[in-house]
């Protein structure tokens, strides 16, 4: 699995125009400044207004990040080293040494996982003393033994058959050999001996399964004729007796030592899922497989401490509750924002730019100016769109002198006139007039806040008059009540802002004492008039924070 390291510039969930446009513009700035592998992204679906902007400027919609939780594919980047189930243990030992690994997936002809071979298990089998009878047992074919010894096959009978065999060394005197060999199960006996013609002949006469002659040399014709007659296989090994014994034991197929009770995970599984599986298992790793159990890698406990290939630059927010899910699990490199500070913290120092401007696009535009880089027409249009959207065409109380000074510069670079572009921007983005479902109206520009122990959820929608709101007031009120019960908010509300009259309504579903403490004129049940209030961030949220902290 390749290492797809990438830096995403991404705004908050339920992204608005400023969030999307600032992500696109800042990603381009950082690319211009030499930061590689950086691209804009979004943490949710774009709204009608933003789609209008992108269509108008010919800009593609940023890639959607449903979450950035670290996944196994993000940390398991090495090519899978596996071994076929019929290969001898000698090949497994070679792979362990060659690749400095401790576990090998065992696969079939199709590359599907059949087991997991651990280095610890292999070393225990070959090195830890056990019962002598068990230590002499091997399960292998004669072909496998020949391969491990790189031996000359003088005579082979049923060489491909995998058998349970017992290994012996013919080191006795000839006088005692005959009585000793009679104690063997000759059909399973593998006898290794050196240049000892008498022992060789007695072994063939007795009918051992395999005679291995160590130290090389030729086989006597009479011995070969006798072997053929008695169906005895003979191999000649150039290794001495000690090494021949060792290598013969290594002829055991890996499937005989592989653990068939192994853990499997998929590349797209969460890293936390692997952590849980390993915590509840004696295994030190898992095989990474496709849906068809085709092996693509090995995940070990060391992978759990690797950093994700995904890194983030947050724009237009600094609270993890508003960030793409999983943001707390990956490295955040920068934050570019114009909102109040939340409960944000990082393990390492980062670039954190927070200024009280009317939009994040305004802040990004100043960063272009500071860098001495002029954005092209499409990027300038994006910056102007985000600025006009968040400042309600410079009418919002959040509008600063910096915002106003940026407009002529962006107009010149983009070829757009801000008042005309702003009017078309809001006309295209009027969800209330479009007949969008009530829930979509509420959640399109929706943010969560914490006031002490209280949880607030506040949506906002802009209109050019309140007539469409009046027609849908009861529908929206019912949906707010349902959302409050469903999500457990203490208050959920929708701010309906008339950008022409520069005033708003606040439709609420909240605690019974709210009408007595909210401090706004009540025009109907759960409906309050907020004259002159146009900014959720600068006017409504600070006021509600004080109200709920005082409850």
UniProtKB/TrEMBL annotation:
<dbReference type="InterPro" id="IPR046342">
    <property type="entry name" value="CBS_dom_sf"/>
</dbReference>
<dbReference type="InterPro" id="IPR010766">
    <property type="entry name" value="DRTGG"/>
</dbReference>
<keyword id="KW-0378">Hydrolase</keyword>
<dbReference type="Pfam" id="PF01368">
    <property type="entry name" value="DHH"/>
</dbReference>
<keyword id="KW-0129">CBS domain</keyword>
<keyword id="KW-0464">Manganese</keyword>
<dbReference type="Pfam" id="PF00571">
    <property type="entry name" value="CBS"/>
</dbReference>
<dbReference type="GO" id="GO:0046872">
    <property type="term" value="F:metal ion binding"/>
</dbReference>
<dbReference type="Pfam" id="PF07085">
    <property type="entry name" value="DRTGG"/>
</dbReference>
<protein>
    <recommendedName>
        <fullName>inorganic diphosphatase</fullName>
        <ecNumber>3.6.1.1</ecNumber>
    </recommendedName>
</protein>
<dbReference type="InterPro" id="IPR038763">
    <property type="entry name" value="DHH_sf"/>
</dbReference>
<feature type="domain" description="CBS">
    <location>
        <begin position="76"/>
        <end position="135"/>
    </location>
</feature>
<dbReference type="InterPro" id="IPR028979">
    <property type="entry name" value="Ser_kin/Pase_Hpr-like_N_sf"/>
</dbReference>
<dbReference type="GO" id="GO:0005737">
    <property type="term" value="C:cytoplasm"/>
</dbReference>
<keyword id="KW-0479">Metal-binding</keyword>
<dbReference type="GO" id="GO:0004427">
    <property type="term" value="F:inorganic diphosphate phosphatase activity"/>
</dbReference>
<dbReference type="InterPro" id="IPR038222">
    <property type="entry name" value="DHHA2_dom_sf"/>
</dbReference>
<dbReference type="InterPro" id="IPR000644">
    <property type="entry name" value="CBS_dom"/>
</dbReference>
<dbReference type="InterPro" id="IPR001667">
    <property type="entry name" value="DDH_dom"/>
</dbReference>
<dbReference type="InterPro" id="IPR004097">
    <property type="entry name" value="DHHA2"/>
</dbReference>
<dbReference type="Pfam" id="PF02833">
    <property type="entry name" value="DHHA2"/>
</dbReference>
<comment type="subunit">
    <text>Homohexamer.</text>
</comment>
